[in-house]
Specification:
- The chain is an alpha/beta fold.
- The chain has a single domain, classed as UDP-N-acetylmuramoyl-L-alanine:D-glutamate ligase (3-Layer(aba) Sandwich), CATH 3.40.1190.
- The chain is 41% helix and 14% strand.
- The chain has a ten-stranded mixed β-sheet, sandwiched between helices.
């Protein structure tokens, strides 16, 4: 196990730029199983972040009460109700059409239907999966930990994106609550432990991102990060690298938003529009 330190140039080289002959399917599809009647905006935030982070196709399955809002958020998003999610949506059409699934952003918690959705994703997705939000609270249950283990044994990556409180619940009150390395080992996943210093670990390696800004301490910013992670997974980036790159670009987008609007006034809606600036900032540093 060891700490990995990336230069901005190395991170810039990870950004998945489209090939000259790319199409929307070869650029990667992210299926988002997200949102609830209470948290309709979460579905919009993660989906818009996915598009800005480069996914060629973002397909949202959400609560019926969130559908209209998602469809207004971006004309290019495809949105359907949870009930229309099929097993075929969870598997790539072909090796040249990469796919990832994001689950849990905006789940309201304590809902048996949400638990069923998460189980379907973990058991049925033949591709990388990112789990965020209230879905993380379910993972401590034995059936979901076993599902994560089966995914690891089948060679499918899973990324978990908890904040400190969610990490404590995953650790079930143990002293490893703030230890991304221990959580990654326990859940056989890559963990992106969010905070003033975000730590990413696959259980062996870890990397710390300290470029964050208190402007990001607002509701919904985690949904944006999860959408960015999911989009990078959909474009074929490894799970550890996707976590590191997304966390860095998320921080840089927050810095750009704070520079434009002031740290007091930044909201989660401001972040997806600053992802291009964040990517440019990495590229400028690389060229320099």
């Amino acid at each position: 196990m060891g700490r990995v330190v990336y230069t901005r140039g190395e991170l810039a080289a990870l950004v998945p730029h489209p090939a000259a002959d790319a199409n929307k399917y070869t650029r990667g599809k992210l299926v988002c199983v997200v949102g609830s009647a209470r948290y309709t905006g979460s579905a919009c935030l993660c989906a818009c972040a996915s598009e800005r982070m480069g996914a060629g196709y973002t397909h949202v399955f959400t609560h019926p009460e969130a559908l209209a809002l998602v469809r207004r958020a971006s004309s290019s998003l495809v949105a359907q109700p949870f009930g229309e999610l099929e097993d075929a949506h969870l598997s790539p059409r072909s090796p040249s059409h990469p796919l990832a699934v994001l689950a849990g952003c905006g789940f309201q918690g304590g809902d048996s239907d949400e638990a069923l959705l998460l189980g379907r994703v973990l058991d049925g997705a033949c591709c990388p999966v990112c789990v965020d939000g209230s879905a993380l609270g379910l993972l401590a249950e034995r059936r979901f930990r076993e599902a994560l283990a089966r995914r690891a044994e089948r060679g499918f990556a899973t990324v978990l994106t908890p904040h400190g409180g969610e990490a404590a619940r995953l650790a079930e009150g143990a002293s490893v609550a703030a230890d991304a390395v221990a959580l990654a080992r326990s859940y056989r996943s890559v963990v992106v432990l969010k905070g003033p210093v975000t730590c990413v670990s696959d259980g062996e390696r870890f990397a710390n991102m300290d470029q964050g800004t208190p402007a990001l301490a607002k509701a919904g910013t985690g949904d944006v990060l999860a959408g960015m992670v999911g989009a990078l997974l959909a474009q074929g980036l490894g799970a550890f690298e996707a976590g590191v790159l997304a966390a860095t670009l998320h921080a840089l987008a927050g810095q750009a938003a704070a520079a434009d609007l002031g740290a007091v006034s930044v909201t989660a809606d401001d972040l997806p529009l600053r992802i291009p600036q964040a990517i440019t900032a990495l590229g400028t540093a690389f060229r320099a």
